[in-house]
Amino acid sequence: MITARAAASFDPVGRSVATARTFVRDTLQGWGYSDVVDDAVVLTSELVTNAVIHAGTAADVLCLREEHGVRVEVGDRYPEREVPIQGAGNAFAPLDSENGRGLMLCSALATRWGVEYGPSRKHVWFQLDLPQRPVGTRSSGPVLPTALLPVADERVRVAVVQIDADNAVSTWNADAEALFGHRADQIVGTPLADLAAWPQTPGTGTGIAEALGLSRWEGSYGIRSNNGRVIPVYASHLRVRDSQGDPSTVCLLVRDDERAVLATPQRSPATDTGSENGAADPFEVFIGSPAPDDLDGLLQRTVERARDMLDGDAAFLLLATDDETELEVRATTGLPSARQRFARVPVEAGTGRYGSARMPAVHDDLVSLPGAVPLLSSTGMRSVVTVPLKVEGRLTGSLGVAAESAGRYSNEEALRLQFAADRIALAVESARLGELERLRRGSLSFLVEASDLLAGTLDRDQTLALMAQMTVPTLATWCAVYTIADQSADPYLSYVLHEDEERIDGLKALLSKIQPPDPVPAPGARIWAAPGRAAQQAALLTSQRELGLGSVPPVSSGIDTTLATAAAVGGETVVLPLVARNRVIGMLTLGKPSDDHFRQEILELAEDLSRRAALALDNARLYSERVANSQALQRSLLPPELPEVPGVEVEVIYRAAGEGNEVGGDFYDLFPIRDGAYGFAIGDVCGTGPQAAAVTGLARHALRLLAREGFGGPAVLERLNAAILDEGARSRFLTLLYGELWPQENGGALLKVVCAGHPLPLRLRQDGTVEPAAEPQPLLGVMEDLELFEQVVTLDPGDVLLCVTDGVTERREGSRMLGDDGLTEVLTGCTGLTAGAVAARVLRAVERFAAEPASDDMAILAMRVPGPPAS
């Protein structure tokens, strides 16, 4: 049964793909179907791309909400497109292929999908079912004897604190005043971060702002009382919104030793009526019920329980990579969490490893084995016990507990810890695989968005900016892009971005002082230690100067920036090559702040992004070179400057259509023939591009050569016509207005013109009348035997001769066209204006005639004989 629907149509342009993705994402999130949003967006993106890019038609998207899922239909107007059918001899196209990929993704991600044909369109639909979720009580406990109930003070106080959208306290009840000593009027409006000692539980990677943004959160931290002491509390947070839709967080706080009041109780062993001894779920006994839903929460709960079970001072958990060759730190307690998170160590014995992680191990004293456990270096831990996490005999992780005293653990503790690890290994592996699947689908969606953005521009600087903005902060804390102009050039620092804008200048200055990374074409990320070393050295020298140590005099500024830069680049820094067309064109550098590391999944995603970014950057380079070449060729086809003609004002305006990557066919020229005589021309070659440019160059240079040899106008054009026809298949039609200009001593000018298929020149007299100044004759490049004639025109003082190409007269707005009549009307109002003013007014009229950019080149040549000075 359909309970809601939403529909939209998208034009056949590239930007419609991103708009369609936004439409589907907003629709499904509005319906509360966030579980299937990523899959729906990926499928919609591919199907709309097929419609608007490959089929070249509009796309219709229809979202239907059903009781157990959502159905999305994408229709195009091209029903003849072939659809591959499984099992009928037609295989799906490869993933890298453009055609068929959308249907292959439907087969992989959708619950059901299909194709429906109509007489004028085709619909591809897919259905995504919502995941099954158990319904019932979240947690409950059995009836217990009074002696087994948790102990609390005679008066249990529960502080109720409400936090507004800005993370400031908006409500502070009487129990909160009694527990912490602050009155409500003193606290309301104060950020909770100013009161909280966060985190109370070491090892958690969640900050207070993140915790307040979660829909539900439980955990321990401290609240500073009015006397400055920190009171440990156990908190339960619930995210709510009021009737106006404004979010806030309700926090229930009790003393940490009374956490049983709020904490969800562990399940006690359930009594089995069919047996004498009841059995509890070993996993829930160790982890507690309910178990955290997310992997990070489950791992954090695991290390805390392991530490408490063996009465240790610290605990850690590492997960194996896919190839089981390395272990990655994923959760710690009692250790500096940020410094060790996502660090990696080898599985087998060797330098920097304390033996094989595939077997339990007990170390009585790490002092006797310095460096045996790198994770515990400089932490004060002396003894450690580690056990493997295995699923079906395959190593999936390692769990360890450490103590500050030596000889704390024996084989008995190792067996207890191994028993617990065996009970949680399957749950951890299941949660890890679920996280990997979410990361995979999120990565696919990210790469689809990135490819769409990179394909939407051919500007080099914009491509560099997009590369950096897509990586920061999604993949890294900061990013630097180096480019290589050619194989003999050194890498050049082209773009730097940090998630904190105030760090960009210091980071750019640091990277500019060190040698760039080597342009190694080998795929994959490699560690680059130079920025970290340079930042530490700069921070050390700056600190010494600040303290007045050494021979350098102390300074009073710069230490804050230097130390902040050192912290920004103090973590792991990796370099990925940008390889396009078998050539390294640059490097993408990603960095983390102090003591932070990259996850392998992030590096793999960054590698995929770097391949797409490299191709986009190289395409932008090729496009820029093509535009530069076209513009240089276009300039070579136009005269570098116009000569001054005595007694005649001359003005030329030339506007090339398009984005500058094609050479236009319009041209003009004005040149001296002999003393007192000047030749002028304005023409239009059919088409654009190199072949049109060849005819343009031939025409302009032939006109000058033939005119200076003494040939008259008809003879010049007849010989030019023969030269064009000699080009054979490379020839192009050419419309041309050619004339000779003879300034007169009496202030006028004599013109001899030939108009070969070109828009007729218009003459504006002083009284405002406008008339054609020539008669039409056949265009060039069509017939071999042309019989052309020239016409004589006399310009009196104050008269104007206007010559244009058809880009002016054929300017369109819908079905309307400016035409000869419109140009005549514009010229009529130009009486008394200079040649420059006449040309500018004509251009302004053409631009105002239509809102869309011009689709054809325009050339305007205006010549005016100045009138007598006003008396």
Automatic annotation (TrEMBL):
Keywords of the record: Hydrolase
Pfam families: GAF_2, GAF_3, HATPase_c_2, PAS_4, SpoIIE
The keyword Phosphoprotein is assigned to this record: no
Chain segments annotated as transmembrane: none
PROSITE patterns: PAS
Domain of life per record: Bacteria
Domain PAS: 154-189
NCBIfam families: sensory_box
Protein's name in the database: SpoIIE family protein phosphatase
Species whose genome carries this gene: Streptomyces yaizuensis
